[in-house]
Specification:
single chain, 16 helices, Growth Hormone, Chain: A, mainly alpha
């Protein structure tokens, strides 16, 4: 029996966890896990803070939008910087600034200095989203430098699993704080996020690899950006994938700003309910990402890409229609 278990564990390792045998990738994976958990816990705590101050889902939507929109307009800039400068240095600087941002936010809440200053909260959300975009794009650029080509797909899938699973970790991490500490729960959540970023930074300092991309230094930012668009347009498969992802994010990601209202008004679960719902989204994404890490057939991956893109749109519909807690969790997992 023990030999069979060893065989099964080895099979799982060889199919799903191959990239983790490389030390720098393990460290990068850990950085992403803790920084991602901090990012998603912060989205919950910051959204709930806005909801407590105003009682309106509008401000929850605004601060969530401010944290998300930088991914759209900063990605080309980060990609350019990741090609021109050392990627690990960019990662470390971004983590440092995000940790300081979290400390500042925690201090403002602790000193009751955030009440009535929603524009500051909006600015901090925008700053946090910009720095998070720097981390995610730099991480994606670093993976090919840490994992050999034949195991690159596994490394990318594990990275995605970490980014998606961190929703669950972040949500469950602050759940006891919001449930037990009541009014002080949000402040404690911000301090926990700061500690997550601090651990991620310490781990990032241990990454040994140094890398930049290949770039035509005689051309400026706009020239290289246009060259990237031309490349995407000239490759229909890449263009189709990007358009599908853009449509998916534009049409389904708005649910995050509505979760405080859904949890409070429909489910009567308060801030704890928001954590459960975000955690359920992360759990579904984590299971799917780990499953995809073991899929090696290109055709199968393409079919699954379309299937999951369609089914993820059904989750928000179910969440909007149901008033039952169990079905709401199921809808969040589907998303």
């Amino acid at each position: 029996v023990s030999e069979r278990r060893i065989y099964m564990l080895a099979k799982i390792r060889d199919q799903y966890l191959l990239a983790l045998q490389y030390e720098d990738f393990r460290r990068l994976w850990t950085v992403n896990a803790f920084a991602g958990a901090a990012q998603w816990a912060l989205i919950i705590a910051r959204g709930w803070l806005a909801y407590e101050i105003t009682g309106a889902a509008l401000w929850v939507g605004l601060v969530t939008f401010a944290a998300m929109i930088p991914r759209l307009f900063t990605s080309p800039i980060v990609g350019f910087m990741a090609d021109r400068f050392d990627r690990v240095t960019i990662l470390r600087v971004g983590l440092t600034l995000n940790m300081l941002h979290n400390v500042a936010l925690a201090l403002m809440v602790m000193l009751d200095a955030i009440e009535g200053r929603l524009l500051i909260l909006l600015f901090l959300a925008l700053l946090n989203g910009t720095l998070a975009s720097f981390r995610m794009n730099t991480t994606s650029a670093l993976i090919p430098n840490m994992v050999p080509k034949e195991r690159l797909l596994n490394g990318i899938a594990l990275n995605q699993a970490t980014q998606q699973g961190s929703r669950m970790v972040g949500a469950l991490g602050i759940l006891p704080l919001l449930a037990i500490l009541d009014d002080n729960g949000i402040m404690a959540a911000f301090w926990l996020c700061s500690s997550f970023y601090a651990f991620a930074l310490i781990t990032a300092m241990r990454i040994n690899i140094r890398s930049t991309g290949v770039i035509d230094r005689e051309k400026g930012f706009l020239s290289n950006l246009v060259a990237g668009f031309v490349y995407v347009y000239g490759h229909p498969q890449i263009l189709a994938m990007i358009l599908i992802v853009l449509a998916h994010c534009a049409l389904t990601m708005s649910y995050e700003s509505l979760l405080p209202s859904i949890s409070t008004e429909k489910l009567a679960a308060g801030s704890v309910g928001v954590s459960y719902l975000i955690g359920a989204v992360g759990a579904g994404a984590l299971i799917t990402a780990i499953f995809l890490a073991g899929v090696r057939n290109t055709t199968t991956r393409g079919i699954l890409f379309l299937v999951f893109g369609f089914t993820s749109g059904l989750g928000p519909i179910l969440l909007a229609l149901t008033t039952h807690w169990e079905l709401s969790i199921l809808a969040a997992v589907a998303m």
